[in-house]
Amino acid sequence: MSLFDEGAKQLLDRLHNKDLSSSEVVDESYKRIAAVEDKVKAFLTLNEEAARLRATELDAKGETNKALFGLPIGIKDNIVTKGLRTTCASQLLANFEPLHDATVVDRILGEDGVVIGKLNMDEFAMGSSNENSSFYTTRNPWDLERVPGGSSGGSAAAVAAGMVPFTLGSDTGGSIRQPAAFCGVVGIKPTYGRVSRFGLVAFASSLDVIGPLTRNVEDNAHLLNIIAGVDPYDSTSANVDVPDFTKGLTGDVKGLRIAVPKEYIGEGIDPGIRESVLKALSELEKLGATWEEVSLPHSKYAVATYYLLASSEASANLARFDGVRYGVRAEAENLLDMYKETRSKGFGTEVKRRIMLGTYALSSGYYDAYYKKAQRVRTLIKQDFEKVFDNYDVIIGPTTPTPAFKIGENISDPLTMYANDILTIPMNLSGVPAISVPCGLVNGLPAGLQIIGKAFDEATIYRVAHAYEQAAGWKLVPELEGVKG
């Protein structure tokens, strides 16, 4: 058991009441990391000396009223942190220390949060299993032989293993929700533009979103309250009101209209996952909601569309990593060879695969046939969601087609690996928010319930997620073999 298993809210109350000090909570975090990190491998860099100093300074201030006072948090390693190594899990950035904080980090520090360290991920956020990290694979705390999901696998595993009460991840095609489902925690992809991307190392700029991973829905809503909002440093951040997402957590869903896409509970979905989702819908029916089956007919094109668009954007975004401006530089006799050597040695196989695919899709003669057509299909997928939301409040389905798979099981089959995101990718293409909450165990492994909402209506999906969480009463905490306490 960990002090963080019950979530952050209780801890925050004790910190505000001075029953606990920030130093005690930070110490607890590092004790837990020392106990389990050699098994889980969630962190790439620890910030121990600076975090302990910050906790001491916060305690000395005597003012405990800030919204994250003294609470430890882990940051995915593609979100920049001033003076703290940010590698994107790539050898190309193995020595990169940013000169500024990302806006989300700045807002967390402004509410007196304490950054504990940087979390493992698939290299440049490209992957569905965390096996593409160039350092090591994070392991699922529920079964150390299985993947935690990707690309925010370190962020999900750290929360599940009780190392920190919450973390930040990024979601380009499901990279928060899929690992949240695999590890039995709560993860949200907010609406595109709800959270500033300033300081997030770009993978696919029109799809990337930063979001929280937490033990429960209330903690998740609390953290989104802090990081959401327009940012003058990010022109794609939306100038819309940010409501208090925790105020709507009433448990009341009477009269709520739920759509369930037949494509999300049909062929290819593990029977145990399907049963867990149907049971969750039954729980929501008992609370007064109603549900009907609908269709999202263009969802079947989502995976192909996503990999064309995301790879095209990645090929442009990653051009900046040439050995001149950031990170590691290879030795060579001339400038052109230096570029080639740096990128050949610095990027891993999956990153190279996507750069090649994206460059091809954008090249003269193929742009209309691939990239432009994919953009048209993206519009059709977005219109599918808009039509459904004309008549329903939320869409519900599974987060993943199966529970967590074994390490190495799909690594040599990229198409099967890509299909793991088939239920999460359409929301990134459409820009709408979606959350994954635990909905039980399938063969001893967590299953995730995905709740999807209208653009900028995170309040409704939090309300539904919280109502279900309270009604179902799941308390999913893994027992790590050989770890006491």
Q: Secondary-structure map with pairings?
A:
Layout: H1 8-16, H2 22-40, E1 43-46, H3 48-61, E2 72-76, H4 103-110, E3 114-119, H5 153-160, E4 166-171, H6 177-183, E5 186-189, E6 209-214, H7 217-227, E7 257-261, H8 271-286, E8 290-294, H9 302-317, H10 335-346, H11 349-362, H12 367-389, E9 394-398, H13 414-419, H14 425-430, E10 434-442, E11 445-452, H15 458-472
Parallel strand pairs: 2-3, 2-4, 7-8, 7-9
Antiparallel strand pairs: 1-3, 4-6, 5-6, 5-10, 9-11, 10-11
Helix pairs in contact: 2-3, 5-6, 9-11, 9-12
Question: Can you offer a commentary on this structure?
Answer:
This protein has 15 helices and 11 strands. With 485 residues, it is an alpha/beta fold. An 11-stranded mixed sheet has the order 1-3-2-4-6-5-10-11-9-7-8, with helices on both faces. The longest helix has 23 residues, at 367-389. The chain is globular. The mean pLDDT is 95.
Query: Strand order of the main beta sheet, please?
Result: 1-3-2-4-6-5-10-11-9-7-8
Order of helices and strands: HHEHEHEHEHEEHEHEHHHHEHHEEH
* Average pLDDT rating: 95
Q: Over the alpha carbons, how many angstroms does the gyration radius reach?
A: 21 Å
Distance between the termini: 5 Å
Number of helices: 15
Q: Indicate the percent of residues in helices.
A: 25-40%
- Give the DSSP E fraction (strand runs of 2 or more residues): 5-15%
- Total beta strand runs: 11
Q: Judging from the principal axes of the Cα atoms, what is the shape?
A: globular
Report the major sheet.
11 strands, mixed
Low-confidence stretches: none
Q: Which structural class matches the secondary elements?
A: alpha/beta
